[in-house]
Amino acid sequence: MSDHVKLIYDGKTYELPVITGSEGEKGIDISALRQTTGLITLDPGFANTGSCVSTITFMNGEKGILRYRGIPVEQLAEYSIFTETTYLLINGVLPTRKQLNQFSILLNDNSLIHEDMQSFFQSFPRASHPMGILSSMVTALRSFYPEIKITEEEINLMVTRLLSKIRTLAAMSYKISRGHKVVYPRPDLSYCANFLNMMFDNPVKPYQIDEDQVRALNIFWILHADHEQNCSTSTVRMVGSGRVNLYAAISAGIAALWGPLHGGANQAVIEMLTKIKEEDSGNVAKSVERAKDKNDPFRLMGFGHRVYKTYDPRAKIMKKTCDGVLEKLKISDPLLDIAKELEEVALKDNYFIDHNLYPNIDFYSGIVLRALGIPTNMFTVMFAIGRLPGWIAQWKESVDDPNWRLSRPRQIYAGPAPIDYVPIEDRI
Length: 428
Ligand code: CMC
Known about the structure:
It is built from 18 helices and 6 strands.
């Protein structure tokens, strides 16, 4: 098969190289396109554009495949823990037992937050969304830990610091928002258990670590850990391309994740299911009809995906985790019944079949988080903590890439032709 494509334009033929990935994916390398032809490409939403060559995550949207560094996400969800998957994503290989122990010690050593940062939390208005607070706090970390050099060791320290502190920041913001005393991280607890303890321990009712809950949280975060060039990850790469510090790039990623079409969908799903329960007496038909109506902006939240044109493999595991966790904790959540019914009705509907719309990760994840006691407005923060290893791995890959350039897309200008400035007194 030819490793070039021919472009015929204005009577001339140009040859553009075809790049083949390790899983057989093909792309046309257009890096010299403008220089040789004077043309640019136009691809709103970048649906056909590869922004980089990456060795981190493989997705096949037609077959429903997701692998981190070659390992199927199903195996990681079954056998791994979040810190091990984090190490895998950032370093490219699974750690030995010794490496994992060292990594855990480093995470513990860096888990405290500068006490002065606590006063920031107090200054946010009570109704502030936790994603806005998290994004600001991550940027603020740069001011508290400014000693960033470019040695490998310094970068590793900065990365570990961020991975560890983000969960302390998230738990702290929850405690302060409730007017409760902050709970400090404990060195004897694992990453996930530590987070749950910081969230829920209090002097009146000490938190009892529940291994089923800890396992569910590990799975939740593993499933969110990376998803190749999605909106927030592309944001991290793009902002990072200006060579800003890591904290600033991650803070931008958090802001991008906040939107309801991206990470904010997990909160939006629970709000939608609650509305169906309370306003439609649990009847899902009205929502399915509204989602199909092109005059109604309503969409079924937690359905559809830019890449997956079949069932999101993460959603399958999330659904199973959801059933398991509710059973083990003996919780009956009416929203789960509504979600299952909504899925059943939508998957039989021709509109959803024709548009290849299936549940995505966010459809069942909120019900798992509710079972763990996480408040709805913190769901997207939970997504952000999970996605952090992926953002960091992608940021590292981009800054180490010898071909990396400042991200600077072009446009097709469709505005007015040149006109002269009109003095204000002459305007009508
Ligand atoms: N409900 C109803 N119709 C939908 C939905 C939906 N959830 N999603 C897509 N469509 C329709 C859309 O109206 C359009 O129809 P038509 O071609 O007839 O005009 C068609 O499907 C294609 O939609 P699109 O917006 O061009 O597709 P996209 O690839 O740009 O959007 C999406 C992907 C995730 C933004 C979209 O499916 C959506 O809005 N879903 C709901 C929000 C959601 O669950 N987001 C979480 C995504 S997974 C987590 C993450 O990775 O961030």
